[in-house]
Amino acid sequence: MADLNIHVEVVAGKTVSGFGVMPGAKINVYNHGTEELTIGLKPNVFASPPFCSGPNDNGPIWSFKVKADKHEGVYVCNSFPEKQFGYTAQIGQSGLEDPIIIIGRDSPVPWIAANGLGLAIGTALGIVLTLVALRLFGKQRPT
After folding, report:
1. 66 and 36 Cβ atoms separated by less than 8 Å
2. What is the pLDDT of residue 127?
3. Which of 14-18, 70-74, 118-122 is predicted least confidently?
4. What is the pLDDT of residue 119?
5. How far, CA to CA in Å, does 4 sit from each of 64, 86, 100, 112, 140?
6. For the stretch 111-143, what's the b/e string if a residue is b when 16 or more beta carbons lie within 10 angstroms of its beta carbon?
7. pLDDT digits 0-9 by tens, 41-63
8. DSSP assignments along 59-110, one per residue
9. Count of Cβ atoms closer than 10 Å to residue 77 Cβ
């Protein structure tokens, strides 16, 4: 699983949590409720929707539904020009949840590439340390 970054701030006197993603990322939504889940935008003031039903900006959509005890995946449209968007999530007639999704456009190194580089460096370092330990302990003979 990938790391999850949650950004928490105060907006208009309310604590708001945001989840960071890259443009084109797939968002998997799991409905663990017993009624249908509706995901919509908050507020719906954008010229184009942030959600696409497929990769490469295929099928822009404003909202989507997830059946009870199921999951659906949508993509962040590459063409969506904003840096973030708010959305609402509501299962059945329960109260609305309203976090935000932050799109990582300003990063000089994309988050995924940075994590991939860190993994590669960590793996290489682990291999080197293992080889050094084997050489050191492999040369010792019982007396």
Report:
1. yes
2. 55
3. 118-122
4. 45
5. 22, 17, 14, 11, 45
6. beeeeeeeeeeeeeeeeeeeeeeeeeeeeeeee
7. 877 678 899 999 999 888 999 99
8. EEES-EEE-TT-EEEEEE-TT---SEEEEEEEETTSPPB--EEEE--S-SS-
9. 23
At residue 17, the 3 state secondary structure works out as strand
The reported pLDDT for the residue numbered 114 is: 41
Cα 10 to Cα 14, 18, 100, distances in angstroms: 5, 11, 12
Residue range 98-120: average pLDDT? Answer: 54
| Tokens 């003031």 found at | 45
Q: What is the pTM of this model?
A: 0.64
C-alpha to C-alpha distance for 103 and 78, rounded to whole angstroms: 10
Residue pointed to by tokens 């929707």: 49
What letter represents residue 21's amino acid? V
Rounded Cα gap, residues 90 and 65, in angstroms: 10
